[in-house]
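Ticket #4471: structure export looks truncated?
Reporter: QA, pipeline team
Priority: medium

Steps to reproduce: submit the single chain below to the structure queue and open the exported record.
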Amino acid sequence: MSVETVPSRLGTTRPVPWDRAERVVREAVAGVPDTSAEAVLAELERDVYDGIGAADLALAQVMAARTLVEREPGYSFVAARLLLDALRAEAVGYLAGEHRQPDHPEMAASYGDYFRDYLRRGIELRLLSDELADFDLDTLTSALRPERDLDFGLLGLQTLYDRYLLRDPHAGIPFELPQAFFLRVAMGLALHEPDRDARAVEFYELLSTQRFMASTPTLFNSGTRRPQLSSCFLTTVSDDLADIFASYRNNALLAKYSGGLGNDWTPVRGLGAHIQGTGGSSQGVVPFLKIANDTTVAVNQGGKRKGAACAYLETWHIDVEEFLDLRKNTGDDRRRTHDMNTANWVPDEFLRRVEADAEWTLFSPDEVPDLHDLYGNAFAERYRAYERAADAGEIRVFRRVGATQLWRRMLTMLFETGHPWITFKDPANLRSPQQHAGVVHSSNLCTEITLNTGPDEVAVCNLGSVNLARHVTAEGLDGEQLRRTVTTAVRMLDNVIDINYYTVPEARRSNLRHRPVGLGLMGFSDALAELGLPQASDEAVEFADRSAEALSYHAIAASADLAAERGAYPSFEGSLWSRGVLPIDSLRLLAEARGAGELDVDTSATLDWDGLRERVRTSGMRNSNVLAIAPTATISNICGVGQSIEPLFSNLFVKSNMSGEFTVVNPHLVRDLKRRGLWGEDMVAQLKLHDGVLGPIADVPDDLKARYATAFEIDSRWLIDAASRRQKWLDQAQSLNLYLAEPSGRALDALYRHAWRSGLKTTYYLRSRAATQVEKSTLSGTDGRLNAVPAAVPATVAEPEAAACRIDEPDCEACQ
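Actual output as written to the record:
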């Protein structure tokens, strides 16, 4: 589109839209502290040129504000508002069939009319369910809060724009604005409610205030014609060729609509095992894992994001040593899975052998078939019996290795390749509420789900996370607001189960029988910053305990209330819940199985758990599982808070994801430095020089260095201690990354043994130093922008060419 130009006071020419651009910039900075329209306009002057089009001018406005983010975090909100201006023009213009560019006041006044037009077009395009038209739109549109479109930072709004907001599939034009997005998701989750208009408004309030956010599959698909809303699927692959290939088909169907996969491969017989049907010998599990890897790559969830899966194998499997090598960049590529995650499913008996520096025996599962379903002392006893049988010549395929040697190799490969992750079979099962219904054979893609699987059941979990940062003040946790949030959130997650579109019957059967959900949290590091607590402190560990206790208490209470209203889940009888055994109580079961010295967990509590036990016994539970802390890689970006329970990565860095690169500055640090008169261009330059780490900066007081210490400055034992306090309240697990700035075999060994003794069910990635650092330049450099530049990757333990798992890798987004 051609534009006329007018004389500029700078002696050049400016496009006619400049007057509007200047007005929009001034509107964008209104109410954002410490930002200036003049600063944005000065940056914009550098990028405009004669004849610039309206679309390019809109982009230049966003980039001008984005450039200033490293100096003042508030410019992230300014940039987001400028992006919102362009998004409004696209959406409203598309629906009107003509060029329209409403500003915020005009849009706020007509948001209800826009929503009706949006809904009509979405249904016409067969993107949205026809049932959405049956809601009382007068009630719903009167509940819309257009001003909440202004609450996003740039990363959050850009993430919505790129991947979540509905587009015309033919023209590619987005026509869904943020508040329409939240209301559409809320309506989709309220479809089966008796008073669905009121519930849709209630759900919308929770989402649009960002106190809670549903998982990515729910946000993608709620209210659409294919509402596949569940996050995670867990399967067990049987030792049968037909079942193995059926598992590939199921994986593809489950991944197609945004599900992350956790596959238990332990039953598949190992290398050298006898095949009765052909009289030959098995090639083991690895060739089948290669096919599973390639299936994952082929199914990319409609182009929205990569398919993702994790293969689990128990430590006694005869192929475990080859399993450890799957992610190596060397060796026979036909026996490598470069795209699929892997995890060790470790029984306690193995770690006892490690501690005793004893031998460990590897078996093929076809000769020891019951080991797969045993755990705790029953597993240990049967395992020892099989060792005696092997010594007596009664078992054909087995091999003896040193347990300590195998453990060292597991940790070495974890450092070198980031895989396989270390997860613990016995605590996952001994503390499972569903012991009567089956066995937990694996976790999921992100190691927070611990649900039963079997030949006839695919475990399904439905996730969402409380934004903890929105539930704290400088005085502490707002327990009453948290209760209200959790009560509504559990209802939303329970609704997912009945609305959900199931691609395989085994998933439907399992989900309706057990009705598990996984309520987690995000923004933990932001909550600590608001409270003024360093991550590496007893106070932070205590806050992790008390906040998880409150989350658990209110989630269990909400599920019990739903059971009184809607009925208990079908497999409730016989569960730990039915016996009044809550997650905090199940610690006793783990302690009894382990014996003295193998479990070191604080058991303190502050809430009325006796009263809640009685409610659960009498009312039942609507959900077999209610709590799981997922990574929240994407939804935390939308909400503008730190991921999940993660420590602060850096105080100033470039975040790369599928939406591009974004400068991230710690706003809590900037606030505290301003209060002490320490924030300015020199401090920004120092932060860039030291990769966002405060330690080497002499001007920063020690208390702020402790409060804003980054992940690699913190001893990861603090993270494990906090996770241990949370784990006692969770019926599932938590996605826990660990960090080592200078890994060594001794440090890795101590860390993971500590995790085991602390009662953790799982761990996730081991992070080494990042390979992306901020540009080492001051603001007086070429353009003052923050860019990503390569830095050296730490040498590995044994293979210099194998890259360690790095925190700058693209975030896993399958769970959230």
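Status: closed, not a bug. The export was complete when the record was re-opened. Leaving a note from the reviewer for reference: Confidence is low (pLDDT under 50) at residues 1-13, 770-812.
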